[in-house]
Specification:
The chain has 19 helices and 12 strands. The protein is mainly alpha-helical and about 475 residues long. It has 4 domains: about 140 residues, Rossmann fold (3-Layer(aba) Sandwich); about 150 residues, HUPs (Rossmann fold), CATH 3.40.50; about 55 residues; about 90 residues, Arc Repressor Mutant, subunit A. The N and C termini lie far apart (about 80 Å).
Length: about 475
């Protein structure tokens, strides 16, 4: 490559959503490029016309956008570049590095059957490799590359180490089918070369492809990119991650209420490590990420670890950013949107909501007190808590709150003194107060709720609850 700039790519097939394994591959490419001031490109491998859909392409782009993995330039369609792929195959044919093969499917199947019966290698050796063009028949043909027949091919892999393949194990790969369409193996190499890709970071299920793809690089005299084949993700049971392990698409995790920053952090740690660091920011990940930190063994997806990291990210997030992400979560999950007032109230209350909430549903459950309206309907547990006090106590508290200055210290002192005057501890009052203010038994602290709700709303809710207790 003439430039020293790092260029990576993510190249999904648009046949479904953005799988969580694909999301991690994209993240690794994004981190590697962004941490080195390089480019991260996107290529949609849509050559399978029957299975590729615009909806799947849109879902992949949405998944990447939710994860915050921005790409440079427009996504490239592999299908639209078919003429360029064919041009390379024809160039290799003209240079004598590829040849026309007229063998039919039946002949190839017959060859393999005979080889199997004789206990020989079933690797197809075309009789047309060195045939005289004068003997060519008038029938359809494929174009095959001339694979090296002796020696070895070495894949210098940054994760797997050097992988050596004997060249007599490589067949003369088809480049162009008999209908003139290019095969995937050719398309990938041509696209990666033309896009200036310097580092190919992808799943290790592609490792076997690398030797065949390297043949094309060598035949064209192109520089081979840096290979890095990363282990796949397994479920908690050690088997390849599949639908039975739960959510698989990136957007499903958004709809479950995981924050994107926590998801990025967790996926980065899935198969890559930087010392003992578990929690880190995007800036740290970009600065630290390298290929040497990627392990050779499959990583195990652990939902509890994901939740734990997401909780840490929610706790340190900017309040306004959290509000925006929660609005997007509600839309993704198909849940009712918040009103403008509810959004404002949510952001105002964030200081007492974001600690110890691992997901947005957990945070919104804690936020019930600010999202609900009077009269507050208590749930069964809250109703029980209300029944432990007389309505008199809640009514008596009102004048004390009327005169209190509305600061946390003063509210703590006022309520502490009030409890003492009634021969009890504040802890005994806390349950009924939670029920009165939020209609729930598990809430942020009573003082935090009062500060967020303000004097007028707090007193009104206590009066409502006193009326409710009195009418039971």
């Amino acid at each position: 490559m003439s430039s020293d700039q790092v260029v990576t790519r993510f190249a999904p097939s648009p046949t479904g959503f953005l799988h969580i394994g694909g999301a991690r591959t994209a993240l690794f490419n994004w981190l590697y490029a962004r941490g080195r001031g390089g480019k991260f490109l996107l290529r949609i491998e849509d050559t399978d016309r029957e299975r590729s859909t615009p909806e799947a392409t849109a879902a992949i782009l949405q998944g990447l956008t939710w994860l915050g993995l921005d790409w440079d330039g427009e996504p490239i369609s592999q299908f639209e570049r078919a003429p360029r792929h064919a041009e390379v195959a024809l160039q290799l044919l003209a240079e004598g590095k590829a040849y026309k093969c007229f063998s039919t499917q039946e002949e190839i199947a017959g060859f393999r059957e005979a080889a199997r019966a004789e206990g020989k290698s079933t690797l197809f050796r075309s009789p047309w490799r060195d045939a005289d063009p004068a003997t060519y028949p008038d029938r359809p043909y494929v174009i095959r590359i001339k694979a090296p027949q002796d020696g070895t091919t070495v894949i210098h892999d940054q994760v797997q180490g050097d992988v050596t393949i004997r060249n007599d194990q490589l067949d003369d790969m088809v480049l162009l089918r008999s209908d003139g369409t290019p095969v995937y193996m050719l398309a990938v190499v041509v696209d990666d070369h033309d896009m200036g890709i310097t580092h190919v970071i992808r799943g290790d299920d592609h490792l076997n492809n690398a030797a065949r793809q390297q043949m094309v690089y060598d035949a064209m005299g192109w520089e081979v990119p840096v290979w890095a084949h990363i282990p796949l993700i397994h479920g908690p049971d050690g088997k390849k991650l599949s639908k039975r392990h739960g959510a698989l698409g990136a957007q499903e995790y958004q709809a479950m209420g995981f924050p994107a920053a926590g998801m990025r952090n967790y996926l980065a740690r899935l198969g890559w490590s930087h010392g003992d660091d578990e929690f880190f920011t995007d800036d740290q990940a970009k600065a630290w990420f390298d290929l040497t930190g990627i392990g050779k063994s499959p990583a195990r997806f652990d939902m509890k670890k994901l939740e734990n990291l997401c909780g840490q990210h929610i706790a340190v997030s900017d309040d306004a950013a959290l509000r925006h992400e929660i609005v997007a979560y509600l839309a993704a999950a198909g849940l009712p949107a918040l009103s403008q007032d509810q959004e404002t109230g949510l952001e105002k209350a964030m200081f007492c909501l974001k600690d110890r909430a691992r997901t947005f549903p957990e945070l919104l459950e804690k936020a019930h007190f600010i999202l609900t309206e009077r009269p507050v309907e208590p749930d069964a547990k809250a109703q029980k808590a209300l029944e432990t006090v007389s309505n008199g106590i809640l009514s008596e508290l009102t004048p004390h709150l009327q005169s209190a200055s509305w600061t946390r210290n003063d509210l703590e002192a006022t309520l502490g003194a009030f409890a003492e005057d009634h021969g009890t501890k504040f802890g005994k009052l806390a349950g009924p107060l939670r029920a009165a203010l939020a209609g729930r038994a598990v809430t942020p602290s009573v003082f935090d709720m009062m500060l967020v709700l303000g004097r007028e709303e707090t007193i009104a809710r206590l009066k409502d609850a006193a009326g409710r207790v009195g009418s039971e």
